[in-house]
Fold these 2 entries.
Entry 1:
Amino acid sequence: MAIKDLKIVGQPVKLRDLDTHVTGETVYYEDIRVPRMLHLKMHRSIYPHAKILNIDTSEAKSSAGVVCVLTHEDLPGKKKYNGLAGVGVGPEDESVLAFEKVRWKGESVVAVIAETPKQAEAAAAKVKVDYEELPAVFDIMEALKDGAPVVTDHWPNNHYIFPDNHRAAQVRYGDVEKAFAEADHIVEDVYQTQPIEQAPLETNGCIAVPEGGDGRITVYSNTQGLQFSLDVTADILGVPTSKLRFIGGTVGGGFGGKVDLQPEPITTLAAMRTGRPVKFKYTREEEMRVSSSRSAWRVEIKDGVMNDGRIIARKITTYQDSGAYLRFSSYGGMKHCGHMPGPYTIPNVWIDSIVVFTNRTPSNAMRGFGVMAGSFALEVQMDKVAETIGMDPWELRLINAYREGDMKSHQKEVEDAGMVETILAAAKLAGKQLPEEFQKMSSLDRKAG
Amino acid sequence: MASRIVSLKVNGQNEEFIVGALTSLQDILRDTLNYTSVKEGCRQGGCGSCSVIIDGELRLSCLTPVQEVDGSEVTTLEGLNQSNSIAALQQQFIDKYAAQCGFCTPGMMVAIQALLDRNPNPSRDEITEGLAGNICRCTGYLPIIKAVEGVVAEMSGASGD
Amino acid sequence: MAEYLQPGSLEEAAGMIASHGSSLAIVAGGTSAMRYSAPQAEHVMGVRGLGMNKIEHFSGGLSLGSGVTMSQIRESLPIPALQEAARGVGGPAVQNMATIGGNIFARQPYGDVAVVLLALDATVTFSTVNGEHTKKLEDFYASGAQADGLLTRIDCAAPGGELVYLKCGRRRFNSPTVIAVAACVGLDNGKVGNACIALGGAGKHPTRCAAAEKALIGEALGVASIRAAADQAAGACSPGTDSVASEWYRRRMIATYLTRALQQIAAG
C-alpha cells in the first residue's frame, strides 16, 4: 500500500475546537459566570531562604472586603505535596502554604480572599511575616559543594536521591575509560541553558464553586494535569475525591507551564471555608515570576572520536536545576537521561543525570521536558567534534546515526530507525551537496553507501 | 467620590452604566457586559488579547479608562460575528490551522479586521506589522499570516482583480 | 480605588494638578499610565477630552499637541525620523493610543520619540495655574524630568541638518528598545557645523550626548570623527540592566548604532 492510499495518515484532521475559537465562543475557565464570586490573592515570600518567625494576619483580616484569610494552620489535610505522589514519586516536599521556612522568593505564605481582586490584593499586602533571613544558594554547582546552604531537609546534599539510593539517573554501557584511551581524539565541553518561562497567554488559574451544602465542590481549572490537581487537592483538603468535580481541558496555552498544581488546592479550600465561589488567577507578573519555568541545565560531555568520524565513547554528566522543590524534576531528569547520548550508535556510554536543589523558583515541565537542553548540548557537541577532526558535520552525523537493529546504550534495540533518511531529506531541502556514498546511506543497512 | 454615567454602543447595542473610580473598558466588556471574547492575558498592553475596535480604531481595552470612551462605538469579536463580516477569515483560520489554544484568536480576529479596514490588500510585511501587537504562543504566526493572505486573495478574486 | 477626574479645560486641569499634587496621575493614551502610575494613584485625571491632539506646521517647524498619537505622527508628519520612532512604539493598537506627551514621560528604555525630539532640540510647554511656561526638552530631562503643570505642547524647528534615527530592538516590530540613537548633523564646507546627538536606553532619561557632539563639531564627518564620537558616547552614557538588555550590551550597541547613524549621514 502506498502512502497516497492511506485514508488517515498524511491527511489533515480538523481541530475540533477551532469552530468556537474563531468566534470567541470557546469557554475558558475564566469565562464561567457564577454569582457572588470571591477573589483570592497570595501573600508571597520576599526572601529566597528564610525562617518564618511569625505570621500576623490581623490587619489583613480587618481590611476592606476581606472574607477569609488562610495560613498553613488552616490546611485540614496534608500540608505538603508532590504532584506525582499518586504515581509513587516522592517525597511530598513542597509546602502548600509555607510554614517554618520559605525556600524561594515568591513562595505562597498566606491566601487572602475578598470581594474584589483589588481588595484581596490590598489586604494581601497587609499581611506581616517576620523572617530570619538564611543564606541562599542559586547556582547548581555551588549547591553541590560541601557546606552549601541546605535547601530542604529531604536532601541534605541538595540533590535528589533516585530509587535504590542513586545520586543520579544513570546509564552504564561498555567501558568509556578504555575507549577514551584508544580514541584518536578527545572532545570535551560544557553546555548550559537558562530557565525559560513558558509564558502561556492565559495565566494559571481556577474557579472553585461550592455545590449545595454537603461539601461538594466543582473546580473549573486550566491545569494541564487535571487528575493530578484533583488528587493533590483531595489530599490537601483531606476529603475523598468523590467530593470534588474538576472540569478542565480548555487551556489557553500551557506548554508545561500549567502542571504546578498550585492554584487549585488553596482555591478549593477557600470555597469550602467561605461557602462561596472563589477565583484565583495569576497576574502576568505571577505567571512570569512565580509559576515554574523550564529548568536551567548544565551538560558536561566528553567524547572519544576516531579519525574516520566514529564516536566510540561518550561520557555525560548533567545537572538540572530543580529550584527549591522537586515538582516533576526527577521525571524530567530521567527523560533527559533517556534522551542521551542522542540518535547515535555509540558503543561505550556513561551518563549521570543529577537533579539539584537551589533557592530558585521551582522548575517544571516545558515542551520537550528534559530533552531540549540535551539536544542543544548534543548537537553543539557534534559540530564541535566535526570541527575538531576536520569533518563535514552532516557526514559526521550520518556516520554515527543509529541504524535498524543497533543496540542503544539503554540496552534496547533500535526499531523503525529513520535518522539517516531524515538527515538526507534535510540536506536536500537545505541544498547541501553530500558525496555519493553518503547519499546512498540507509537506516536499514549500515553497509549501504 | 464623583460618579458619572458612561454610555457606550457595544456591538450595536446601547449600554449605560455608572462608574466612579478608575475602571478599564476591559472590565466593563468582560465582567459587566459578558463579552467574554475579550481575553485578559496581561493587563499591561503587551499581548493584544483584549483588542477591540473603538470608533473605527484598534485599541487595547485593558489600558483604556472607560470614562475616556464615553459615547463611543465599541466592537468586539461578538460584534464581528453578528455582522458576519469575517466569515471568510474564520474559515481561513480553520483551513490554515491558524489557532491552537485559541486564547489569542479573538484579539487576532479584531486586529486583522482593523488591518483590512485600513488596507484591504496588505503585503506579507504589512500583515506582520499589522499583527505585531498580538502575541500567539502556539502557532509561530505563519499559519495566521497565511490565513490573512488567504482571505486577501479571496477578496481580490471576488472583486475581479 | 482611584477617583477619576475629567477636566473640561486646560485651566481646570492645571487647577486639579495644583490641588492634588503627587496624589494625581495623568492619563492620556493610557499605555504607560494605566500600567504604572494610575493604579497606585488616589486621583486619576484623564486628559483625552482636552483636544491636545493638533499638529501645526510653521516655516518648516512643528507644534505638536501633547495628545498627538503615534499613529498621527506616522501618518501625518513630514519628518521620517519621527515617523520611524513612532512606528517602533508597540503594535498598531498601542500606536493608536500612545501619545507624544506620554512618550516624553515614559520609563526608559521606552520613550523612543523623545530621543528624536531631543535631537531636534525641541521645547516643551506646560500649563499651570500661573500660566504657561516653556523649556528646552534637554533641560527638562537634565533637571530630572519633573513636570510642572500639564504638558500641553512640544515645539521644534526644522532639522538643522541631516537627521537619522536608529533603534536596536529584539524584534523587527513591537520590540522594547535596547537602545535608540538620533543624530542630527549639519555640514558646513565638508566639516560638521552643528551636531545634536540624542540617546535612548542610555540612562535614566533620554539624553543629549555633548561629548559625542564635541567630537564631531569642526571635523570632517569620516572614519576618525565617527569613531571618536561613538567612543565618547559609549564612555559617557550610563545605561541600565533590565530584562531587555544588559548595561554591557547597551553600551556596545550605542557605539555601534551611533556609528551606523553617522555613516548614513556621511554617505548622504
Entry 2:
Amino acid sequence: MTTISVPVGGVRKKSLLWDYLTTVDHKKIAHLYFWTGLVYFLIGGLEALLIRTQLAVPLNHVLDGKAYNEVLAMHGTTMIFFVAMPLLFALMNAVVPLQIGARDLAFPFVNALSYWLYFFGALLTHVSFLTGDVPQGGWTGYFPLAHPDYTGYGMSYYAMGLQLSGLGTLLTGINFVATIVNHRAPGMTYMRMPLFTWTTLIASILTMFAFPPLTAGLFLMIYDQLFGGAAFDPAKGGNPIIWQHLFWIFGHPEVYIVALPAFGIFSEVIPVFSRKRLFGYPAMVVATALIAFFGFMVWVHHMFTVGLGPLANGVFGVATTIIAVPTGIKIFNWIFTMWGGKVRMTSAMLWSVGFIITFVMGGVTGVMMALPPADYQYHDTYFIVAHFHYVLIGGTVFSVFAGAYYWWPKMFGKLLNETLGKIHFWLFFIGFHLTFFIQHFLGLWGMQRRIFTYLPGQGFELPNLVSTIGAYTMALGVIVFAINIVYTFVKGKPAPADPWDGRTLEWATPTPVPEYNFARLPLIRGLDPFWLEKQAGNKTVPPAEPYADIHMPNPSILPFMMSLSLFIAGLGFIFKDQYHPSFLYLALFGVAATLLVMFLRSVIDDEGRHVPRELVEQEDAKGVSA
Amino acid sequence: MVRQGRKKGAFYVPLFTLLALALAGCGDPRVSALVPQGSNARESLSLIQISAYIMFGVMGVVIFLLAVVLIRFRAKPGDRTIPKQVEGSNLLEFIWTAIPVLIITVLSILTVRLTFSMAQDHSDDPNALKIQVIAHQYWWEFRYPDLGIVTAQDLYIPVGKKISAELWSTDVIHSFWVPALTGKMDANPGALLDGKRQNANRFSFDAETVGVFLGKCAELCGPSHALMEFKVVVLPEDEFNRWVEAMKKPAPKPETTKAAAGEQTFQKNCMACHALEATDPANRPGPNLANIGNRLTIAGVLPAGDDAERAASLRRWIEAPNAVKPQNDVPGTVIMPPFKDKLSPEALDQLVDFLMLQKVDVAPPKAAAR
C-alpha cells in the first residue's frame, strides 16, 4: 500500500495498512484508486514504450510477434480499464461528495467493494504474466482469436479480470447515481450542480447501461473458453460477430464514460482560472446528456468493415456525425468562458488549453472516420490509433493531470510544484503530438495497426522513428510528474483550504477535510455557491442545520474479503483448464467463500457510529480559523 | 507570457502545411490510400478530402479563437479585478449548433450516397470477374470459380474490370485491404448453416492502372498478423487471359534428374498440404503452389526480385518457417513445419529446383514490382 501520510480523521488509532484495507471513506478510497491507477499507468506506459521501441525500425527484434501481441493487448486493457476509469473514479470519489455537500457516497460499503473488485480484477489479469499465458487478442478480444485454440488461456485472464473489475465499475455507477440524486445539500438543485458532478452523474448512468452487455459478453466468452460453450465458435455453429456487437455496445459508451468526466474536470478548471463563471451552463448540461444519449446508437461505426451492409453502415455513420454537434457546443463554451476573463496559466490551466487543441484534432478525425466510405481506408490503421490516442490521452489523461494539479491540495493537503508542473506539461504535450500526429499519415500511407513489425521500403521507417522519439519524450514528462509528487510530499508546504480562489463547494471545506466532510450541511444559494458567498462578503457557505451528532459508517474488511474470494474463484476456474482439473476445487472454495462473506454481511448488524456533537463543534472551530 | 501563445501558433502552422501537402498525394504509390489506383480507393479518397478540408476549417476557427483568448485575456501579475460574470449567449449557442448541423447534413448526404453506390453487388454482372478470397493464418487463397483455377498470395486481375469478390476465413477474422485499390472488407469465419456460409462477405472493386499493388491483413489475427501481406497483380485484359490459359495447363514435368529428385521429395513431404496444379479443386491446408516460380515474394514477406533471390528465399522458408513468420504455438492449428532437420541439404536443393520450375510464362510487370 501507499506510504504517504494522510491525516486520519477517525477516533480510534489503527495501522495505516489496516485503515486503508477497511476504509469506507470516499476520500481514502479516492487515494486508493489514485495510487493504484497511477501504478498501472506506469505499467501501461512501459508497455507503450516497448511497443514504440519495437516499431522504431523495420524488422526489429525487441519483441517477437507473440510477445508484441501480449504487450499490445495488455497495454490497451490496462490503460482503459485499470488506468483511465480508476483515475477518474479517484477524482470523482475525492470531489463529488464535497461538491454536492454530502457526507459520503450513498453506499460507502459498496464503494469499498467497488475498489477492491477493481484491485483484484486488475491483479487477476496481471497474474497471467506469471503463468506464461498472457492475453494476446487485443483489448477488444475478438473471437475466434480469443479462444484457447488460438491464443492459449491468456484471454481467459482478460475475461475473468474484466468481469471482476467490471462488476466494481457497475457498482460505482449505481453508487454515484444514488448519491447525486439523493445526497445533495439543501438548495443544491440539479441546475446548480457543478459540471463535474453533472458529468459524473451522466457517466454513471452510462455505466449502468453499458456494462451489462459487456458482462453478458464476457460470461459467454468465459463459457466458450473454459466450459465448452459455443456462442462465438463458428465450428460449433456459433457466431463471432455477436461478440463484436456485445463488445461495442459496451465499448462505445465506454469512450464517453471516460470522456465525459474529463469534460467535467475541464469545466471546473477553466472557470476558476479565468475567474469567470462557465459560459452557457445549461447548454453544457444538455450537450453532456446528448452525447451520452447518442453514444448508445453509434457502436457499429467500429464495425464498418465487418460487412453489415450499406444500410447499417449509412445509418450508424450519420448517427455518429451527430455527436460532433454537442461536442462542438462544449468546445466553444469553454473558449467563451475564457473570453473576457482573467486567464491564469497555472499547470491545471495549461493542461486544459492543451486539451482543447488536442481534443479538437481528435474530434475532427472522429467525424472523418464516421463516414463509412472514408473509414474503409482508415479502419484498423494507424489513423485510428492516432485518433483514439488524441481523444483518450488528449481528453482523459490530460484531464487527470489537470485534475491532479487542481485538486491535489484538497486530496493530499499540499500544492504540487508549479514549475515542475509546467515542465511536465510541455514535455508530455510536445512528446504526445510528436508521437501521434504523424500516425495519421502512416495509416493513410498503408500501415495497418497491431502489427509487430513492418517491411522496409514502404515508406514507414522515418515516421515510425519520429513517433518513437515522441513516446520517449512523453515518458520524460511522466518522470517529471513522479519527481513532482515525491518533491511535494517531502518539501511541499501545507495548502490553504482555498488555494485557487475556487468557486465550488469543495473549496469551502477545511483542509484536511474532516471525515464527515461538513460539520453542518451547507445551504446552497446558487451556481458556484462558494464564489457567490465570497462575492457577498461571506467567509464561507452558510450552514443549513445546527450542530448535531453525525452518523458515520463503520470500516469493514468484508469488501476486501469478498473481492479476494472472487479472485480465488476466478483463478481456480482458469487453472482447472490451464494446469489441472482439480483446481476446480479451488474455484468452488472461492465461490463458497464469497457466499460466506455475503452471508456475514447480511447477518452482522452494523448500524454505524456517531461522531459526537461536541467533537464536531471543536473540530469545526479549528477548521474555520485555519 | 504572450510569447508562449505565439510559439504555439508557430508549432501548428507547419503541421497544417504538412497535412495539406500530404493529402494532396503522398506515400508509396503501391500501398498508399492517398494515391488511388482503383475506383473504390478513389471514391474513398474523395470523401476523405472533402471531410478533411471542412475539418481544417473547423480547426482553424477553434485555434484562432483560442489564440485570441490566450493573447488578449491573460491576467496581468497582481491583477485581482473580477471580470464580468457572463452567463452565456443564446445567439452564440445557436450559431455553434446550427453551423455544425449544416456541415454534418452536407457530409451525411454525400456519405449515404457513396456508401450505397460503393456497395453495389456485381455478383450477377456478366462482365465482372468473380473471385473468392479465403483468408488463412497467415496467407491468402484466391479462387476463380468461373475459370476453375486457384492461386495464393499473388492475386492476378485484369485492369478496368469489376472484380466481384466473396470473402471468408477458415480460422480467425482477417481483413482484406489493398490501400491503393480498395478499402477493407473483413474475412470472417462462419458456420455452414443449410449449405450457406454465415458471415461470408461480398464486395466489388477494380484497378484502373496496370501494376503491382500491396495488400495487407488489417485485422489482428495472431503472431504473424504483421506479415500477412499479399500482392495484387493488375494485367491488361489480354495478358490476364493468357495467364489464365497458362495456369490451366498441367504442372510442368521436371527435365533434369535433380528436379526429378525434387519432385519425389515434394510428393513425399509436401503434397499432403500443397497442390501443384492450379486446377486442383481440393481445399488443402496449405497454399496452392502453381506458379510459385513467379511469386513476387515468398510467404508474403521474403524477397523474390529475381530467380536466384526467389530460390534462396524459398529455401530459407522451407528450412525454418518459424524464423521468417512466427507460426502459432498452440496445438491443433495449421502450421508450416520446419524441414531443416527432415531433409538433407541436397534434398532441399532438389526441392527448390523443382519448385522453381512451377511457373507460367506470363510474368508479372517487373518495373511496377519495385
